[in-house]
Amino acid sequence: MGLGGTPAAAAVACPSGVESDFNGDGIRDTAIADPEATVDGMAKAGLVHVVYGGGKGTLALSQATDGIPGAPETGDQYGYSLAVYDADLDGCSDLVVGSPYEDIGTVPDSGLVQVIYGAPAGLGSGTKAVTEFLQGSDKPLGGTPETDDWVGYAVAAGKTSAGTPYLLIGGPGESIGTVEDAGDFYYVSGTALTVVGITQNTETGGAVPGVAEQDDRFGSTLAATPTHFAVGTPGEALGTTTFAGGVAYFSHTLTSGYPKPLGGLGQDQDAISGAEEVGDQFGAALAMVPYRAAGATSTTESLLAVGVPGEDLSTTVDAGAVQVFRLAANGTFTETAWIDQNTADVDQEAEAGDFFGRRLAAVNTSPNATSTGTNTRLAIGVPGEESSEDNPEQGGVQIVPLVGAPGASDQWLEPGSGIPSGPAPRMLTGLSLAATPSLLYVGTPYGPAAGQAVYGFPWGVASGGAPTQTFKPGEGGIPATGVAFGTTVR
C-alpha cells in the first residue's frame, strides 16, 4: 500500500498551531508504534499505525510502504522511538521515526531516523520525499556507521521560543575513539535541517558536562521545551560509582551552530538530593515542560523531571525515585521535588524492584499562565509494581502534580483499576507513556495479546478512573495483528 492509505479527508491547506495534525484538518492525529511487528515475514522489522483524528482513516507505515526508503529487515524495530513536529513550517505536522537497530550496509544496528512529511491528504502524500538521518561520509550525520551505534534510540522534536524547528537524535551506542558506548546526540536545526553532532567531549559553544567514558550511553534519553533541552547519560560513572547516571541540559541558543551547554545534574552534587549509588541510572527517563513563576510575564523557564529507577530507598532495592528541577533562563537550577512511593500522601508504597520512574511523561496545559499543580502534571511509570503475588511486574502509573506537594493530588492507575486490560504477570505497565495537551496515553503492549491497547486518560482522572479514548488492534481500522502494539505513542 502507498503512503495515502485510507483517505484522510484532505484539508484545503495545512493550518498552523494544531499539535500532531498530519493532514492539517485541525484535529489531532495519533501515531502508535509496534516495533516488534513482523513485516513481510521479517520478525521485529517494526511498523507504525497512524490514526487520523475525527474518524478519517488509518495508515500503516513500515519500510515495506511505498515511498518509505529501505526494506524491512529482521530486528530493525522501526518505530522504536517517535517524535512529532513541523519540520518545514508548512502547518502540517511531520512524523519522526527512529529505527535504532537498522543495519547500514553491512554494519549491524548502526541506526536510522526518518522524517515523513505531513500534507493535506495525509502523511507522505505530498511532493516532499522522506528525509533520512544516518551516518556516513556523504550522509546527513557524517562520520562512519559502526556496529551498535543505535542512532535513533531516542528522539525529541519541537519548536524553539523563537519559532525555529528542532530535532534531537540520540546515538547512545556511539564509540568515541576507543571508548565504547560513550554515546552522542545530533541537533538538527531549522527548515534547512542543519546538523551538528555533540558528545561529552564537545566544547564548541561551551563545555558539555562530563567526559566521554565507556558505557556512559550519552543520548539514551531526550526531553525538550521551547527554551531548554536535556540529554540523559544513565550509564555515567560518578567517581568509582558505575551506572550512577547524569543529565546534561542545554539552551536552544546557537553559538557557531551549536546549542549552548548550561549545566549538568548528578547525585554527587551538594545541591541535589540523594547519594550516587551503583546502578541508580539517574537520567534513565526524562520529561520536561515549560514553567512560568507567579508574577512572570513570559515563559522562559522549564521543569525537568529525572527518573532514577534504580534508586534504593534505605534497604528497599531498586524501588526507584523521581527528582524535579527548575531550570532558569540563565542556566541555573533548583531542585524542587523528590518523589517516591514513600513520599507523604502518595498512593501505594515503595517495594523492591518497582523501578518507579523508569518512564516519564509530563504536560503543561497552560504554558502561558502561572504554573500550578493543576496545569503541570507528571505521569510516572512503575513497571515492576505488583498487585498480588499472582501478578508480578504487572506495573502501574502514578500521576502527580509537578508544582506543590506530590501527594496533594496524585492518582494511581493499574490494570484492572482504571486500565481496562486486566491484570496479568509481567505486563510491565508504565513502560509506554505519552503526553498530549488533553490526554495521558498509557500503552499496554506486553502481557496477553488480548490486552494490547493504548488508552487515553484525562490528566485529572481520579484513581482507577476510566479512559476516554481507546486504540486497539482489530478496532477502528487498526489491523488485528500485532506483537507489541503501543510500545511507543505520539
- Portion of residues in beta strands equals 25-35%
| Helix percentage range | under 10%
> How many strands in all?
29
The CATH homology group name of the domain at 284-489: Integrin alpha, N-terminal
Kindly report the CATH topology of the domain at 284-489: Methylamine Dehydrogenase, Chain H
Write the CATH architecture name of the domain at 284-489: 7 Propeller
CATH class of the domain at 284-489: Mainly Beta
Order of helices and strands: EEEEEEEEEEEEEEEEEEEEEEEEEEEEE
pLDDT < 50 runs, ≥5 residues = none
Chain-averaged pLDDT: 95
Categorize the overall geometry.
globular
Keywords: Glycoprotein, Repeat, Signal
Organism: Streptomyces adustus
Protein name: VCBS repeat-containing protein
Question: What would you note in describing this structure?
Answer:
- The two termini are 23 Å apart.
- A hairpin with a 4-residue loop joins β10 and β11.
- Helices cover 0% and strands 32% of the residues.
- It has 490 residues and is mainly β.
- The strands form 7 sheets. It has a 5-stranded mixed beta sheet with strand order 20-21-22-23-24, with no helix packed on it. The chain has a 4-stranded antiparallel beta sheet with strand order 3-2-1-29, with no helix packed on it.
- The protein is globular and about 55 Å long.
- The model has no long low-confidence stretch (mean pLDDT 95).
- The protein has a domain of 206 residues: Integrin alpha, N-terminal (Methylamine Dehydrogenase, Chain H), CATH 2.130.10.130.
- The protein is built from no helices and 29 strands.
- Pfam families: FG-GAP (PF01839).
- InterPro entries: FG-GAP, Int_alpha_beta-p, Integrin_alpha_N.
- This is VCBS repeat-containing protein.
- Keywords: Glycoprotein, Repeat, Signal.
